[in-house]
Amino acid sequence: DGGITQSPKYLFRKEGQNVTLSCEQNLNHDAMYWYRQDPGQGLRLIYYSQIVNDFQKGDIAEGYSVSREKKESFPLTVTSAQKNPTAFYLCASSKQAGVVETQYFGPGTRLLVL
Amino acid sequence: GEDVEQSLFLSVREGDSSVINCTYTDSSSTYLYWYKQEPGAGLQLLTYIFSNMDMKQDQRLTVLLNKKDKHLSLRIADTQTGDSAIYFCAETPDRGSTLGRLYFGRGTQLTVWP
User: Fold this and answer.
1) What is the Cα–Cα distance from B102 to A39, expressed in whole angstroms?
2) N or C terminus of chain A: which is more exposed, having fewer CB within 10 Å?
3) How many other C-beta atoms lie within 10 A of the C-beta of residue A31?
């Protein structure tokens, strides 16, 4: 089955701690995206990657970092600089970047601060 | 920036039709999407429409696009309790570096009463 997996489903962060959210896809998609969802809000773009070894900041990149060393993987690190990290994080991918392509979403990771 | 607006709540009785409305501001929008999100889950693509179309039907779903008024609607016929979810409208502009990016509304919580 092709799809996007995110792990863990729930993640707890202590003050001052960096945590990493995993996103993997086996759809052979070039482009991958990270969104943050807060209650009653739409999705806001954190980072996106159009191709391996390349990524760009979205609208709310401060306090987050990413890497794209492999086509199928796009992990997101929530750093201690992100002062309000509690949210639902969604990863997505699309076939190509730079053209209009449908985005497909993973099941999400809920991050909570202890 | 791009603005996508939706009403936040809609309640209907089982068996009735639901109409969820969305307005957007970007006249360069190429594709417009409807996504469904069930509690604690990722987003599921329901349907999309290209900006040169004014209607698309897919089983119980009908999408209407009024490009002049920048108004998009999703009609669900014979609404069932399983349709209860948050519905997101999203658009992608056809402009340079933003090509392929999605801009989301805040979502409409649809509640279906038995």
Assistant:
1) 19
2) N
3) 21
The answer to whether A10 contacts chain B (CB < 8 Å) is no
Q: Kindly determine whether residue A48 and residue B102, on different chains, have CB atoms separated by under 8 Å.
A: no
Task: Flag whether residue A94 sits within 8 Å of chain B, measured between CB atoms.
Answer: yes
DSSP A101: -
Could you read off the pLDDT of A62-95 as tens digits, one per residue? 999 999 999 999 999 999 888 899 999 999 999 8
What would the pLDDT profile of A87-98 be if each residue is shown by its tens digit?
Answer: 999 999 998 765
Residues A18-22 have a mean pLDDT of: 96
For residue range B32-57, list pLDDT tens digits in order: 999 999 988 899 999 999 888 899 99
* pLDDT number for residue A100: 64
SS (H, E, C) chain B: CCCEEECCEEEEECCCCEEEEEEECCCCEEEEEEEEECCCCCEEEEEEEECCCCEEEECCEEEEEECCCCEEEEEECCCCHHHCEEEEEEEEECCHHHCCCCEECCCEEEEEEC
